[in-house]
Design brief:
By secondary structure, this protein is of the alpha/beta class. The protein is about 40% helix and about 20% strand. A 7-stranded mixed β-sheet has the order 15-16-17-14-13-19-20, with helices on both faces. Helix 6 links the parallel strand 9 and strand 10. Helix 2 crosses helix 6 and helix 3 runs antiparallel to helix 6. Bound molecules: nicotinamide-adenine-dinucleotide. Keywords: Oxidoreductase. This is Succinate-semialdehyde dehydrogenase / glutarate-semialdehyde dehydrogenase. InterPro entries: Ald_DH/histidinol_DH, Ald_DH_C, Ald_DH_N, Aldehyde_DH_dom.
């Protein structure tokens, strides 16, 4: 059993008077770690302590901060196996995926270590005797509030970008993956000056207390409802809200594509990480011409997945993060079936320990069903049959979210329409996952706002100052 400690003002083991949480392994329900809960007062003290260091850290040369970040990347790489095992034990994903998440996090830290010092400002052309320029500066104190579904990759992005741009950071990992967050914070704190990074733990109330503090940025990756509460808190405090939130990504399957191949793409998009990805395929619009063959092939793929604990190397589909979440997923599936959808695979709560949920295929779905409109965040493929590509695009665009979308089509004109018309941050054609390194998008609608990834994240954590210098009294210096 791990015993997580908080890091406040450079001191490990500080605070925790708000009680204690226990994290359980979703594969078998066994306890994995205990976590202190911060009080509102502790959160306030942590912010105060961080603020005291902000000026000094901001004045540290960028190259020095970047060198420390590069060392932090090495430290995380050295601790990768423990981080991956903790991720699997806390949220259930197959160990290979967890290792991939840690490797992605290390890659992001290395990228920001390289890119941080390369960023510059602009010189301006003012009066001949004047010096005019624009220069990026750190924003100051950043609260980074992160989710559980890919805890290392997501946290490394926010922490790396905020630290290398000269901000002090208060890190609040998810209460569902606090051991992973604590292990990561320990590795980073081993490299950075004491107090530059703080770790606060606990549940939603700790995140809310942090978001209400006089910080400069609240960067939140997580659910849309949380993002909205954080945006409201930031409106009151004047902090900048950077929000990467939920999605309900559509997959459009056009007429004329190979239904077997399309089913492979759909299965990957809907069932990877047990559907617990912000960019998971949440709803599928299949053209009537191929809908039946596509559904048959998808049902076959759902049934073929190897289900088991994430630590078993053969496992392809691990458990959901916990039973509370499983109840939500199952509730959406049963409601859709009660409203006339057809259950073609899965959809039944298994006996036995843990929070397992089978890969589920539901056809004859309709646009207005909650299963289609809302984020399900489980291994569920909801299929709506459509009569034309135009209808598919219209339905795909009709969503409270705007994260990403995928279109499977052999038609270049359909592909062009898709990327031009869909109101989402990322459009993928003929591949549910993938994309060039360094890509970053702005989510839309309920999926958040601002760049949560890529080189642009460095700009999000910086502010720009315009400077005008003139010699005194119109003379000389
Ligand atoms: P969540 O919003 O419930 O929790 C995320 C973090 O916010 C946790 O640390 C939690 O304690 C904290 N929190 C909860 N309520 C809060 C409040 N009122 N004020 C401040 N902080 C609060 O989300 P989750 O369940 O951990 O994560 C799943 C969600 O994250 C899904 O919706 C998924 O789509 C989304 N997500 C989005 C991206 C992206 O890049 N867009 C990436 C990963 C996950």
């Amino acid at each position: 059993m791990y015993r997580v400690e908080q890091l406040i003002g450079g001191v490990w083991g500080a605070g925790g008077a708000g009680g204690e949480l226990t994290v359980h392994d979703p594969a078998d329900g066994s306890p994995f770690g205990t976590v202190p809960v911060a009080t509102v007062d502790e959160v306030a003290k942590a912010v105060e302590a961080a603020r005291e260091l902000a000026t000094e850290w901001a004045a540290t040369p960028t190259a020095q901060r970047a060198e420390l970040l590069a060392q932090a990347a090495d430290a995380v790489a050295a601790g990768a196996e423990e981080l991956a095992a903790a991720t699997t034990a806390e949220m259930g994903k197959p160990l290979g995926d967890a290792r991939g998440g840690v490797a992605a996090g290390v890659g992001t830290l290395r990228q920001y270590a390289e890119l941080g010092p390369l960023r510059g400002g602009r010189t301006l052309h003012g009066g001949v005797d004047a010096i005019d320029f624009m220069t990026p500066q750190p924003r100051g104190v950043v609260a980074a509030i992160t989710p559980w579904n890919d805890p290392v990759a997501v946290s490394c992005g926010l922490l790396g970008a905020a630290l290398v741009t000269g901000n002090v950071v208060l890190f609040k990992p998810s209460e569902r993956t606090p051991v992973t967050g604590w292990l990561l914070a320990r590795l980073l704190d081993g490299v950075f000056p004491a107090g530059v990074l703080s770790l606060l733990t606990g549940g939603a109330e700790v995140g809310a207390a942090l978001a209400a503090q006089p910080v400069d940025v609240v960067a939140h990756v997580g659910a849309t409802a949380t993002g909205r509460a954080i945006a409201a808190a930031c409106a009151r405090s004047g902090a900048k809200a950077l929000l990467e939130n939920g999605g309900s990504d559509p997959l459009v399957v056009d007429a004329g594509v190979d239904p077997g191949w399309a089913a492979g793409q759909a299965a990957l998009g809907a069932f990877a990480n047990a559907g617990q990805l912000c960019t998971a395929v949440e709803r599928i619009y299949a053209h009537r011409d191929i809908a039946e063959d596509f559904a048959d092939a998808l049902v076959e793929r759902a049934g073929a997945l190897v289900v088991g604990p994430g630590r078993d190397p053969a496992t392809e589909l691990g458990p959901l993060v916990d039973r509370r979440h499983r109840d939500q997923v199952h509730g959406q599936v049963t409601a859709a079936v009660a409203q006339g959808a057809t259950l073609r695979a899965g959809g039944v709560l298994p006996d036995g320990p843990g929070a397992f949920y089978p890969a589920t295929v539901v056809t004859d779905c309709r646009q207005e069903m909650t299963l289609v409109r809302e984020e399900t965040f489980g291994p569920v493929a909801a299929v709506v049959t459509v009569d034309s590509f135009s209808e598919a695009l219209r339905c795909a665009a009709d969503s409270p979210y705007g994260l990403a979308a995928t279109v499977l089509t052999g038609s270049m004109s359909h592909a062009q329409r898709a990327w031009r018309e869909l109101p989402v941050g990322t459009v993928k054609v003929n591949a549910v996952f993938g994309g060039a390194p360094g890509g970053a998008a702005q989510p839309r609608r309920g999926s958040g706002h601002g760049f949560g990834y890529g080189p642009e994240l460095l700009d999000e954590f910086s502010t720009v100052k315009a400077v005008h210098l003139e010699p005194p009294a119109g003379g000389h210096w």
